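look at this:
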Amino acid sequence: MSIINNINKAFDHRIRLGIMSILMVNEYADFNMLKELLDVTDGNLASHTKALENVEYIKVEKQFIGRKPNTRYSTTKLGALEFKKHIDALEKLINKQ
């Protein structure tokens, strides 16, 4: 078995890795919080959250706070499981050296 078997392609971009890292330690994060913490553009963040949503690793909730739209994200059970497997695989890879 290859030591990179559990490295997940969905997390191979630093922004997606950042999104998942933030969501793993917070119950949820809204668009602006992710944008600020990751220091990315709206379009960049939107495309990466969409990619994670498409593989069902994050859940998206849209709501209004007052008159302002608010989009918040949280991990799904599948997303949390896959991210943990990914991190474990990276640790194994690093520790092999």
User: Anything to note?
Assistant: The chain has a mean pLDDT of 93. The helical segments are 14-25, 31-38, 42-54, 77-96.
